[in-house]
Amino acid sequence: MGPMSTHSEVTPTPTQLRDVAVEIAREAGELVRTRRAELVDDTSVAGLQATTTTKSSAVDPVTVVDQASEAFIVDQINRTRPGDGIIGEEGANKESTTGVEWIVDPIDGTVNFLYGIPGYAVSIGVAVDGGLVAGAVLNVATGELYYAAEGEGAFRDHEGTTTRLQTNTLNDTTEAMVATGFGYTSSRRKAQAQILTHVLPQVRDIRRMGAAALDFCHLAAGRIDAYYEHGLHPWDFAAGAVIAREAGAHVQVPGLRASGDDGEVVITSVQGISAAFDTLLDEAGAKKNVPM
Ligand code: LIP
Asked: DSSP for 34-93?
């Protein structure tokens, strides 16, 4: 039995909420995989491009598969947890009557999805009374399923093997593999590039992999040592933040009512460099918001 939330019904435990998120992510991932296969053949993504529109800029795509994935996820959440709230990238916005909220990115890494770069994910985070408690992230291209519940650790399921995740151990930022990302407007990208000129010479290397949720999972799995990015929305970071935190990472994310348009920074890293990395980013001007 879960803790009593500020609402009348008994709130499910983080593990119970995690398991619902995992199941829905698996099913939504199958929808994303099959719909992409229907729209793309071996030689051309024209079918996918023909069903794609744009949002904040001409290079911020949304495909019919993003929309179909979110519609499916919302339907599944409403069937399973009808009183819960939902916030989704493609418009889902439902108040909670239970204190439980689902924060959904139906395809995180949409540009990778469009180009066929194997790093795009269904990301489902869960909050209770505004605090993130569970998350599931499925890399649809590789089948790697990451998941975590508050106090219960972080895991990856892949090809029949379950691995408990733990961040790397590192105490020197000059040896840190750092992931980051860039926005969809020229003005924000120019500011982000200027910050990068200060960061790049002071760390091992940079990776820009194109999906925030997976960047958090790569940190949890020890594939990178730190990640920062400005302008993420709650659906980009909600699930990944729980997975990285439960794998031992230091995690700083905006509130769940923040708008990515304000350009707040997300910063997460292995514990051993968290203070030094924060200072490095501060000196690079990265602690200030980078608006659109
Ligand atoms: C993406 C993020 C990525 C960021 C992209 C975009 P989307 O989310 O996952 O980290 O660099 O600009 O915001 O739009 O693919 O859901």
From this structure: HHHHHH--SS--HHHHTTEEESSSTT-EEEHHHHHHHHHHHHHHHHH-TT-EEEETTS-E
Q: Note the pLDDT of residue 206.
A: 98
How high is the pLDDT of residue 8?
Answer: 60
pLDDT at 5: 47
Q: What is the pLDDT of residue 63?
A: 84
Antiparallel, parallel or unpaired: β 131-139 and 93-94? unpaired
Give the position, in ligand 1's atom list, of the atom nearest the Cα of 60.
14
Cα angle, residue 76 at apex, residues 75 and 79 outer, rounded to 5°: 85
Among 185, 232, 264, 268, the mutation site with the greatest number of ligand 1 atoms within 8 A of its Cβ is 232
Tokens matching residue 55: 């949002």
The tokens describing 64, both together, are 């019919």
Residue nearest atom 16 of ligand 1, based on CA coordinates: 108
How distant, in Å, are the alpha carbons of 16, 208, 233, 260 from that of 183? 34, 12, 11, 10
| Regions of the chain where pLDDT drops below 50 | 1-5
Per-residue model confidence (pLDDT) at position 264: 97
